[in-house]
Amino acid sequence: MIESNNLTKRFDTIKAVDNITAVIKEGEVFGLVGTNGAGKSTFLRMVAGVIKPDEGTIKIDGYPVFENLDAKRLVFYISDDTYFFSNSTPKDLSNYYKVIYPAFDTVRFEELVNQFGLDRNRKINTFSKGMKKQLTVLCGICSGTKYLLCDETFDGLDPVMRQAVKSLFAREISERGMTPVIASHNLRELEDICDHVGVLHKGGILLSKDLFDMKLSIHKIQCVFKEETPIEEILTEIEIIKAEKRGSLHTITARGNREEIIAKIERKNPVFSEVLPLSLEEIFISETEVAGYDIKKLIF
User: E strands, the chain, where?
Assistant: First the structure.
């Protein structure tokens, strides 16, 4: 289990991570989403022990992370901008990681490199962005670590490779209980594979919930009324996150029990009403708008 408690990190006057308290349980796929500059990459680097927090603590399976080899051997970190040694090859990379991670599976690495069509003797600096991403994922999988930290890992992968990587993740989770932590802007991608989602904004955490529970607690309703007065009454009776009107059609995003929200709307005798499923992207936009990240202010 990964536990952060009041975690804070500053870069000069910028507070990149602000008092984050979160728990990432074993065996689940944890998705980390957030606005630009929300602190996702900084948080992952602190989990990996790359940088030291200014305040608070972060532990992996009870071990403090920074400058602790016992904790770092439990984690493999895939950066958004991975560094490779000059003129190194995939074979060189596997030899390097074998020293750092005693459980690194060289035989499986060779098999996966061949399956993904990568030349183990070719210089990595001649690889495309997508090929480099594939290579780092294969290194992470073969490292045998309990936790895999992925910063925009799917960025640069074509649809076939995305599916192949997801299949690898699913196999590792099933066979040895690997826990991926995936930071991404591709919310549709995360929606397919994540069990739990943490939403960051301006360095702080807005919410951290199971994805299924998150979708059960926020609802989008479209409705039409004979008169305009009932909608004003409804807005005071349920917890509204967002309300829009186009012509006579009202679109309401509300938090709470689905049946109770529907019952309150039905009491106003709507001409038409229906509940629509919310995507993770819509939930993210709704929650960040409440926190002041309003898309309407960004569109000219």
Answer: 2-11, 14-24, 30-34, 55-60, 63-64, 75-78, 147-151, 179-183, 196-201, 204-210, 218-224, 239-246, 249-255, 272-276
